[in-house]
Amino acid sequence: MSPALGLLVFLGTLLYAYAEALVKLLLPAKRKTVRGELVLVTGAARGLGRATAREFARRQSRLVLWDIEAHGLKETAAECEGLGATVHTFVVDCSKREEIYSTAEKVKKDIGDVSILVNNAGVITAADLLSTQDHQIEKMFEINILAHIWTTRAFLPTMMKNNHGHIVTVASAAGQFVTSFMVAYCSSKFAAVGFHKALTEELSSLGKDGIKTTCLCPVFMNTGFVKNPSTRLGKILEVDEVVKALMEGILSNQKMVFVPPQLSFALLFEIRSVQSHKEVVLTTVITLKITPC
């Protein structure tokens, strides 16, 4: 692509971004209520999971919270109960399929039918591929994508029977763009985005228009996975900023939520150039040292 054509593409996507933002400002999407819905959040002990649970509590949803960390889970539950929510907690290792299935049966038997599923649990290892240990790669895939599939298989049948529900996939910008030293992590997040897209298409093909899907792709945020996170460029997103965008996406039934929103247009804009006899791919996405779960 020539520099002139690249500039035209960039200006076009920029104008499109402003136009879309203006339309959303003038014609805001209708928001649904989640009052009384039974919401299950995985990875709820801290970070985005805890913040998401709080937001649903404020909207008078009933909560089922899963995490492997009992202490943090208890703290999240206390915060949500302080907001008036009914909360049920389960210590669950989302890397174990049978543990997911058995706990899901307990939820269905003792509490009720989950109508909103937020697959938020995630893990990250930042290292080059050959330095990443086998067990670390397995753990990332077990939690970052396979757990999404197991929880969905557990709770989707009732949603389909009622033609009512919402499945939320917390992915990452690393599921749209790649970065060095995170081969396994990026691969697991690409799988999560693919799962969301394929599930969305399948539900549409089956005529289940009452079951909504949302996929969150934030660039980078301070989730607590990395101490003193930093980037070479740009700012670290705070959890509150990301959860605000996520809740807006859920309440307005958006299929994809990018944070920052300009990320969606970066998918349309890619410049290829040759430098020092090597092809260099430049995108509008910042190269990161840390990527969120």
How would you explain this protein's 3D organization?
- The chain is an alpha/beta fold and 293 residues long.
- The protein has one domain: 3-Layer(aba) Sandwich (Rossmann fold), CATH 3.40.50.
- Helix content is 45%, strand content 17%.
- It has eight helices and nine strands.
- The protein has helices spanning 3-26, 47-58, 70-82, 97-110, 134-162, 183-205, 239-251, 263-266; strands spanning 38-42, 62-67, 87-91, 116-119, 165-170, 211-218, 256-259, 270-275, 278-283.
- It has a seven-stranded parallel sheet with strand order 3-2-1-4-5-6-7, sandwiched between helices. A two-stranded antiparallel ribbon has the order 8-9.
- Strand 8 and strand 9 (278-283) form a beta hairpin.
- Helix 2 runs parallel beside helix 3.
- The longest helix has 29 residues, at 134-162.
- The two termini are 34 Å apart.
- It is found in: Endoplasmic reticulum; Lipid droplet.
Question: What can be said about this structure in brief?
Answer:
The protein is of the alpha/beta class. It has helices at residues 3-26, 47-58, 70-82, 97-110, 134-162, 183-205, 239-251, 263-266, and strands at 38-42, 62-67, 87-91, 116-119, 165-170, 211-218, 256-259, 270-275, 278-283. The strands form two sheets. The protein has a seven-stranded parallel sheet with strand order 3-2-1-4-5-6-7, sandwiched between helices. Strands 8-9 form a two-stranded antiparallel sheet.
Series of secondary-structure elements, N-terminal to C-terminal: HEHEHEHEHEHEHEHEE
Query: Based on helices, strands and strand pairing, what is the structural class?
Result: alpha/beta
Tell me, what's the shape? globular
Number of helices: 8
Instruction: Tell how many strands the DSSP assignment holds.
Output: 9
Mean pLDDT: 85
Q: Mind telling me which CATH architecture this is?
A: 3-Layer(aba) Sandwich
Largest sheet strand order: 3-2-1-4-5-6-7
